[in-house]
């Protein structure tokens, strides 16, 4: 049985979800961001138990098919932005999403704003900017390296986009270091 879970954005999330499911007596066959496959189907009562346990950790069990599909798109974008795989980063986001979700990108780009209230592109930009903030706080890479890492065409493009969303330049953000970052599930 496949379950779709909202707000799984990192390896720790997968660990927590696995622990909760196993504590309820379920055998987890595979677990990916936003998706879990159980060995046996769960009853309605068991699904309610799973939902309650997951909500205690700010996860949400998704039953609506459109919401499940959108969560898969969001998971693909998080992977695209936050994984350090150079080949993956250089791939067009529309191609990667289409490949990961196995749906036509035009359909997804119409459905996404209907469910989320923003476009796929805006969600991608928001994820990229949160990643930029994270890298600026770490202070290990130059702005040029960050721009290259996140597949920006130039430092100027990154800086312009950063300022238009945050109201400050990356350099200003780096200087204040007040960690105005959002958790990935709130982006």
Automatic annotation (TrEMBL):
The keyword Heme does not apply. SMART domains: HTH_ARAC. It comes from the Bacteria. SUPFAM superfamilies: Homeodomain-like. Keywords: DNA-binding, Transcription, Transcription regulation. Pfam families: HTH_18. This is AraC-like DNA-binding protein. Residues 78-176 form the HTH araC/xylS-type domain. InterPro entries: Homeodomain-like_sf, HTH_AraC, HTH_AraC-typ_CS. GO terms for molecular function: DNA-binding transcription factor activity; sequence-specific DNA binding.
């Amino acid at each position: 049985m496949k379950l779709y879970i909202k707000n799984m954005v990192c390896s720790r999330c997968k660990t927590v979800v696995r622990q909760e499911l196993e504590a309820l007596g379920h055998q987890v066959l595979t677990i990916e961001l936003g998706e879990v496959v159980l060995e046996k189907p769960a009853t309605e009562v068991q699904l309610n138990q799973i939902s309650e346990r997951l909500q205690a950790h700010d996860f949400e069990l998704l039953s609506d098919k459109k919401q499940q599909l959108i969560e898969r798109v969001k998971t693909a974008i998080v992977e695209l932005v936050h994984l350090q795989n150079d080949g993956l980063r250089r791939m067009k986001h529309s191609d990667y999403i289409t490949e990961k979700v196995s749906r036509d990108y035009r359909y997804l780009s119409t459905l996404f704003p209907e469910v989320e209230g923003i476009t796929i592109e805006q969600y991608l930009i928001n994820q990229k900017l949160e990643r930029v903030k994270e890298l600026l706080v770490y202070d290990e890479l130059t702005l040029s390296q960050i721009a290259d890492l996140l597949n920006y065409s130039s430092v100027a493009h990154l800086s312009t986009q950063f300022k238009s969303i945050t109201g400050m330049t990356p350099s200003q953000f780096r200087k204040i270091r007040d960690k105005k970052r959002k958790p990935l599930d709130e982006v």
